[in-house]
Amino acid sequence: MLELSNLTLAEGRVAHLDDVTVSFRKGRLTTLLGRTGAGKTTLMRAIAGLAEPDRGRIALDGKDWSRLAPWQRPVAMVTQQFINYPHLSVLDNVAFPLVRRKVPQDKAHEAARDMLGRVGLGTMIDRRPSQLSGGQQQRVAIARALVKKAPVVLLDEPFVNLDYKLREGLREELVDLLKAERETIVIYASTDPREALQMGDDVILMAEGRAIQSGEPQNVYARPGTTRAAEVVSDPPINLIGMEVSGGQLRLDRLADLPAHALGRDLPAGRYTLGLRAHSIRQGGDLSARVSLTEVSGSETVTHLQAAGQSLVMLERTVTNHALGTIITLSLDLGDALVFDAQGRLVEKELVHG
Amino acid sequence: MRTLYLALKYLAVLLWSAFVIFPFLWMISTSFKTANAVTGGAKWLPWLQFEPSLSGWQSLFGGVGGINILKPYANSAIVTLSGSAIALVLGTLAAYGLSRFTFKAGPLKNGDITFFFISQRIMPPIVLAIPFFLMLRFLGLLDTLPGLILIYVAMLMPIAVWVMVDFFNSVPRGLDEMAWMDGCTPVTTFLRVILPNALPGLVVAAMFCLIFGWNDFFFAFTMTFTEVQLLPVSIVALNSSVTPWWSLSAAAIVSVAPLAVLAFVVERFLSRGGLAGAVR
Amino acid sequence: MYRQKYIFLLPGLLVLVAIILFPLLFTIRVSFSSWDVYNPGLNWIGGENYARLWEDARYWEALTRLSVLTVGTVLLQYTLGFALALLVWRDIIARRFFRVLFLVPMMTTPVVMSVIWRTIFHESLGPLNPILDAIGIGAQPWLSQAGHAFAAVMIVEVWQWTPFMFLLLLAGLLSLPNEPFLAARIDGAGPIRTFLSVTFPMMGAISVGAILIRLIEASKLMETVYVLTSGGPGTSTETTSYYIYIRGMRDFQIGYSASLSLTYLIVMSVALTLIAKALIRLMVKDRT
């Protein structure tokens, strides 16, 4: 187990890491999910020894890493940029980490050739990295990271600079490759909630340099602990709507007044925030809203709407083209709505469903 | 209008070309003259205006009225090449350190240390001449090759640092960090990963070192007397009242020729855009 | 963790400190002594040398002359170098040939070429005066009259170092992005307007760099003068470096020349810093 405790790293007044305590388990892929600037890259660089934390401890199986230089840490890393050694052939690139670790040349080449075959580059071993496409270059980088069988593998948004189609394909290949590594701790940074939820065995949500929630993806998605976590884990963005509960009435700010039983549970009177996922807003109903943006992606349509000064996002599982500026009617499905208290913490449903 | 513009353009290029070539043509022509051809007023064309002779060229190897140029030539080559090589090694190492790691000495940081290196180029040679002179005398290295090499290292290292800091700053740090992840210490990273990829920068730096080293006259002149003579000094020594212009020209040609060839190398780098970074 | 970093920096730094910094500090001490050929050694005479140089008209004249010469030649070199770079930048026949040719002078040894120039400027035997005669200008007393000798030094400096300016400016031109020029073409701007509103502004930072490097190098001027005119006729082409050389290395007034050279260094550093600041304000639009 890789344990980080109280990791803090600030540059001037900006806290890149703020008291992060998390752990990563062997044989599992953990995704770090957060927006750009949330501290994911800094966290990985701290694990690799490339960034020096001001405070805190990093330990693998109880062994402290604080005094280890980057080249002494058993870590492999793939970054957003496609970084390979320009002066070496693809084969020598992948063999390089082994040769540096005193593996005999022929053994190193054998392992490298094997790994290159597994990433689909078996026929290109004599080329230079500059003669490869972006996707192939990143495959070389991945092969180089995996060939040394490091107990910790860091993948920092490895596919973000590739086009969409390639990204999907490579992600699946990578998941297959990693299945073979049963003892490896794999950490994968991502800004894309869907990617994180599909790939990860575990997920850690990050925002403003803090680890705000961790757990199994389905669990984290279904029950984000705070409004912030709900924002990070939802794609398209979750609708957060101010809500007042009093005397058997739910008043959604500027939108609607509903009977209390619409939520299917009892709430004490007070201020709340309602978290409504985009797929819970449907077309047709008694709310009206103006279309301000429509994006079609695959077979889904995301529509941004304005209703009485409140922005809403609606997801439809069809391809629909709403003309800009038209008024459409909506209804809200509160069936799986999330409720947060005045401090933004999740108000759990009674555990009726088990 | 367009034709006039083009005509002016080519006229300008040809005029400047004539200005550039003028001294070279004169020097080549003169190197084949004898006393008669020189004293009768300026002449350019061999056979038509004067009877060409090889005496100027023969005098380079100890002929009449000339000098033996082999010794100074070898001296210049030794001092320039070893001075450049040492300056390049020390300068490249320092530039890599300054580009990749943070150093602090009291209030002084990386930028100040880099400036200290490069600012040595601002120092007029004459300011350093006296302390250099006294230092070499103290070390017993006055009028010796090692003494000159030492001075050339100090003179050329700032150039190497200047070019190489700029070059290393353009190499992504991610490359170094990848090497560290792959088990290289900073020293092996430098040797195995950075150096093999630094050739373009090294060529530019080496070129500038060679140019400034080979073309130096001042230190070669002030730090030597009789034992060691470098090429420019021996040529200027010919520049006396009874100047044998033919020997002078022949010597000038052989002294200038090797570096003039470097212009081709520079142009190649220029056309490939390899020099742009060195300016900013 | 990164203790190896000193392996990179220290060798070069220590060598430079040993070879340059210590001697320089020593020079400061020497400038307060009367070390000369009769009394070699470090005595203490206070600021006497500095009082003497304050009164030394020849020194200040040389410094003024050097300033005029430096600024004059560098401006000429910049104008010519820029023009040449523009000429061989784009569509021209035998572009690479002319580029190589224009670079050659900076590769040649200045003193050696100065020796050749001296024969060219020779009033009766040199090739220059016959040519001037033929085109109706008439023969000139190149090296025997003050004004002419000054011009001769400038011609040689321009021949030798315009290529350096040309090199840096052409490298700059070749690194410019293409889009602004396309935009100017679409706007229908002619070559002159394109130059004034696109090329020149984008070359601001590079121009400042190139001019400063040349100013620094030109302010050290002495070798050309030594060979071409020996500072003469009289002291009419004597530069600061050359005057200090005469006092120090020929008259062997070590103490006095130390004070001269330190004053020179300070004056040059201050002047160059001020010029650098002014140029950057004037010519660099986006200070990044």
Automatic annotation (TrEMBL), chain B:
Q: Does the keyword Membrane apply?
A: yes
Q: How does it sit in the membrane?
A: Multi-pass membrane protein
Official protein name in the record: Carbohydrate ABC transporter permease
Q: List the subcellular locations.
A: Cell membrane
Q: Sorted alphabetically, which PANTHER family does this protein's record hold?
A: ABC TRANSPORTER PERMEASE PROTEIN, MALTOSE TRANSPORT SYSTEM PERMEASE-RELATED
Q: Which UniProt keywords apply?
A: Cell membrane, Membrane, Transmembrane, Transmembrane helix, Transport
What is the organism of origin for this protein? Tabrizicola soli
Q: Report the residue ranges that make up the ABC transmembrane type-1 domain in this protein.
A: 73-266
Transmembrane annotation, as ranges: 7-28, 78-101, 122-142, 148-168, 245-266
A matching Pfam family = BPD_transp_1
| Matches recorded under InterPro entries | BP-dep_ABC_trans_perm, MetI-like, MetI-like_sf
Recorded family membership: Belongs to the binding-protein-dependent transport system permease family.
* CDD domains membership: TM_PBP2 (cd06261)
Automatic annotation (TrEMBL), chain C:
Tell me how this protein sits in the membrane: Multi-pass membrane protein
Q: Spell out the subcellular localization from the entry.
A: Cell membrane
Query: Where is this protein primarily located?
Result: membrane
Q: Where is the ABC transmembrane type-1 domain?
A: 63-275
Identify the domain of life.
Bacteria
Q: Which UniProt keywords apply?
A: Membrane, Transmembrane, Transmembrane helix, Transport
> Which family does the record assign?
Belongs to the binding-protein-dependent transport system permease family.
Name assigned to this protein? Carbohydrate ABC transporter permease
Question: Organism source for this protein?
Answer: Tabrizicola soli
The taxonomic lineage of its organism, from the top, reads: Bacteria, Pseudomonadati, Pseudomonadota, Alphaproteobacteria, Rhodobacterales
